[in-house]
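Lecture 7, part B: from sequences to assemblies.

Below are the input chains for today's worked example.
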Amino acid sequence: MDAYERKLLDETLLGLAEDQRYDDLTVSLDQFGWRDVLAAEPRAAITSLFGAQGRTGRWSSALQDVLALGIDTIGVGGPTNVLLPRPNRSVAATELRDGITVDGVLLAPRDSSILTVLVESSGAGKQAVAVDPDDLVMTLRFGLDPGLGVREVTGYAHESTVLAEGVTADLWWEQTQARARLAICHQVVASLFVMIELARSHVSEREQFGRLVGTFQAVRHKLVEAHVAATAADSCTETAWESADLPLASATAKLATGKAVAVVSAHTQQLLAGLGFTAEHPFHRFMKRVLVLERLLGSSTELASELGGQLLERGEAPRLVEL
Amino acid sequence: MAVSGNDLGTATTARFRASLVGWIEAHLPQLEPPYEDHGTTEELLSHQRAVQRLLFDEGWMRWGWPEAVGGLGGSPLFRAVLGEELTGRGLVHSAAFSMTEVLGPAVIEHAAPALAAEVVPPMLRGDESWCQGFSEPEAGSDLGSLRTTAERDGDEWVIRGQKLWTSWAHHAARCIVLARSEGPGSGSKGISAFFVDMNSPGITVRPLETMAGVDEFCETFFDDVRVPAGRLLGRQGAGWQVAQHILACERGPIFWQRASWLLFHLGELARMADATDATAQRLIGQAFADVSALRARSRSTQLQVAGGDLRPAESSVDKILIAAADQAVFDAARYILPGVIELDDTPVADRFRKEWAYSRAATIYGGTSEIQRDIVASRLLNLPRVP
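Predicted structure of the full complex, as structure tokens:
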């Protein structure tokens, strides 16, 4: 995809996300043919769409499409949703003697009769398994951000098909998780810059003590801290795509993004003061969404330990990108 | 003299790196420091000079520099790659290897071409080192209020005043001095930059010790020091632009090799830590993300600097990030090496103690983190100016 085509894609997807006539962005994306673009140009498609969703505060089933991207490597025979582990967990199911206990989080699913789950099986390592969602209990959860369409999925699946195990399953999940992490990072980073802009315009107009609030150094430095953290996360996310070690680079990007979520949320809400706390100002919608997305597929706290553990095992701190 | 990789002029950075790494690995005995601890300033600079001479004579130190000053041409990114591969193996000290990049580009840009052609090659070869006479006792962050004066007298300038924090001035052959050439109160518009020989009569250097016991920086006194008019860098009164250029160049290849130096130490810590220690894991993971984020950000800055596109305000973000990453790495070291920095006298302790201490200054030197935040607030975020 050349620069002109990329610009066109950005404008088109942003236009779709901004168009409030359609409640369901997924329908607009399907009409546009987003899944074809995703299959042909995963990096451009993910960067562009999730950036647009982050800027506009919208959401769709596109993350399911990203999760299903490498599904042919484990041979699922049809459209599938992928179940995510709960926060603080690395798998969404465990295998018992004669079945699988499922406990995971499903985000804005597509219609499908197959649910793909990463299972921790006793003795055999991890397996990718297909289960029938009708065997499980699916409960809509509003939580902090009802707009994300989160379903809690629990229950006991008696029948299941093993799609992959061992190295094949690990590789599938590593690559799938990496792409999904970067998709989330693109969305979160774009939202963080919206939050910074909301705070910036507020402190540039609001006067107290006879002067603009944005002239106080304490205020200026808080906003710069937010900008620096978001910029670091943005750079990490963009360059991760070029890394020879996509899993490590995407985990690092997610960690940097999680750190930025903490800094930007705290500082921009503080600078917006009462406005950032009210449901009448748009700020809270962005803040809630980035906080929820930060907790999925590895929060900054979990990832610091996970990454550090990997580096201690390797005995080196590798370069993720080169000049 | 045979030049290694003599067909590298149009090479990609990847090919340059591959040739360079092959050469480094074949020359490790000549490149490794002869000391196991941090090294004294004399040891450190003497090793630095030896390495630079070898690199220059074999061509590596000349790639990426203009031919007019003894370089071999090719992408300026080669310089960043050279620094990265050397500091990333702990072969040279990151601070010592910075000098060529801090001052070289500004002299090439602002000195008379004949002067640059005369002085840059011995500097690149390590035959002489230079220092930077910017800060003063009364002019640190507020550099524009500096009080050292330069008065024109015939074909010469006469410099009077005092500089502070002049790194390695006691080992330097030349100094780039900022002095007020216009009247008092002329602010940043009344400053000129001079290229001064350190053996000029009237210069007195008094080394200062850092908190780590290293005689790294100095107080430098200028008592009626006479400097030929041809040593003016840039126009008279354009010293501020020269200084801005130097500060912007600091964020090019130097940050890239500094990041590599940080990864080198983080790798050492990863090998020394208890792999099952959850706190060690968390600290290493966090510091790694900080350094990796800096590298991700700095990568675009490297490409801009190599293309001659200096963006001082945007590079203030890089400066804030590198200072935080530097401190995160050596804060992690204090936990991972229990009591080593505080209680031990081994070579490893000496090394990490001095690096940890130096990292404390990362938020101060080259423009404090507070000054960088003010720049970002006004120039990138366009916040209203302070009345």
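Note for the exam: Chain A has a mean pLDDT of 95. Keep this in mind when comparing with the next example.
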